[in-house]
Amino acid sequence: MAKAIYFDMDGTIADLYGVVDWLDKLQNSDVSPYVEAVPLVDMRALANVLDKFVAAGFVIGVISWTAKDGNKEYNKAVRKAKKDWLAANMPQIDELHVVKYGTPKHRVANIKGSILVDDNADVRAAWEKYNANNSAVDATDSKNLVANLARLLAAA
């Protein structure tokens, strides 16, 4: 049976909320915050842990939302910006979903019974509620996220 670990982007691995005037920019259909966001974690250390997940048979994925109330054209630009950000910062992705804001993430994952790493408590709760085999990792502590993932893998 295939296993996967899915990552949220904004507030989990990408510091969207640290970009100056990020909300005003998104509300004005400006994709620059998605381009300018710096990694929230040491991406080299994350890559090392992800390599171990892959060696243990995991698929690495990202499930992220477009901007709230974004129109079709803007959401397309957001998808491209996020894809480019991942190519530059986290190229070991096997599966990528950049979906409309608010889409339940458990509905888009190709592999059920997987792990979601997300900073949003409601999203994590829904992930676990709608598939008893799913588990979620709280990503609000970005300084310890890589260590927490390493412990999770060691326990698996």
Walk me through what this model shows.
There is one protein chain. With 156 residues, the chain is an alpha/beta fold. It has one domain: 3-Layer(aba) Sandwich (Rossmann fold), CATH 3.40.50. Helices cover 40% and strands 17% of the residues. The protein contains six helices and five strands. Helix 5 links the parallel strand 4 and strand 5. Helix 3 packs parallel to helix 6. It starts with a strand and ends with a helix. The mean pLDDT is 94.
Which regions have little confidence, pLDDT < 50, spanning 5+ residues?
none
Write down the CATH topology. Answer: Rossmann fold
Instruction: Estimate percent helicity.
Output: 25-40%
Beta-sheet strand percentage?
15-25%
Q: Gyration radius, to the nearest Å?
A: 15 Å
Which class do the helix and strand fractions yield?
alpha/beta
Question: What are the main properties of this structure?
Answer:
globular; five-stranded parallel sheet; alpha/beta; single chain; 156 residues; 17% strand
List the helices and strands and how they pair.
Blueprint (H helix, E strand, L loop, with lengths): L2 E5 L14 H6 L4 H5 L6 H13 L2 E8 L6 H18 L5 E5 L15 E4 L2 H9 L5 E4 L6 H11 L1
Parallel strand pairs: 1-2, 1-4, 2-3, 4-5
What is the structure about, briefly put?
This protein is α/β, with parallel strands linked by helices and 156 residues long.
